[in-house]
Amino acid sequence: MTEYKKLTNLEGNQINGDLYLKIQEEANHMSAIKMKLTTGSETPLHTHEHESLGVIISGKLDVIGDGKSSILGPGDTWVNPIGQKHMIKAIEDTVFVEIKSPSPDFSSFLKLD
User: Fold this and answer.
1) How far apart are the first and last CA of the chain?
2) pLDDT at residue 12 greater than cutoff 80
3) What is the pLDDT of residues 14-59, one digit of tens each?
4) CATH of the domain at 84
5) How far apart (Å, rounded) are the C-alpha atoms in residues 52 and 30?
6) Closest CA to 26 of 110, 102, 107
7) What residues contact 99, with CB distance under 8 A and at least 6 apart?
8) Distances from the Cα of 73 to the Cαs of 18, 39, 56, in angstroms?
């Protein structure tokens, strides 16, 4: 397993604030990553060519997808279907795990420091 790396760019767009990513596991058809965001950090509005399912471990996020906003806390989950525009905003310092399927080539859409 890797250490946390700061994520500076997602799908060609700058991250606003501090977001850290750690690849937990990679399999043939899925992967699991752990992410940490500081309060006020957010991803740009973006899409993927994979599905993702998120589970909040601690903190609170505003998850925006398909034009809807949901405030989620520990134990809550969300899904981003393939091609759905989405973004997240950290209301508090937050840790979450995200499962992606099929497992993406992380270097193709993430820029890590």
Assistant:
1) 17
2) no
3) 889 999 999 898 888 999 999 999 999 999 898 888 899 999 999 9
4) 2.60.120.10
5) 9
6) 102
7) 30, 31, 32, 52, 53, 54
8) 19, 13, 6
Specify whether the CB–CB gap between 84 and 47 falls below 8 A. Answer: yes
- DSSP-derived pairing of the beta strands 110-112 and 5-10: antiparallel
CA distance 81 to 38: 25
Return the structure tokens found at 111. Answer: 């820029």
Q: CB of 9 within 8 A of CB of 106? A: no
Alpha carbons 44 and 14: distance in angstroms, whole number: 7
Task: Say which residue the tokens 């989620």 belong to.
Answer: 72
Model confidence at 72: pLDDT above 60: yes
Structural domain that includes position 51: 5-112
Question: How many residues are recorded in the chain?
Answer: 113
**How far apart are alpha carbons 67 and 86 in whole angstroms?**
8
Task: Count the domains in the chain.
Answer: 1
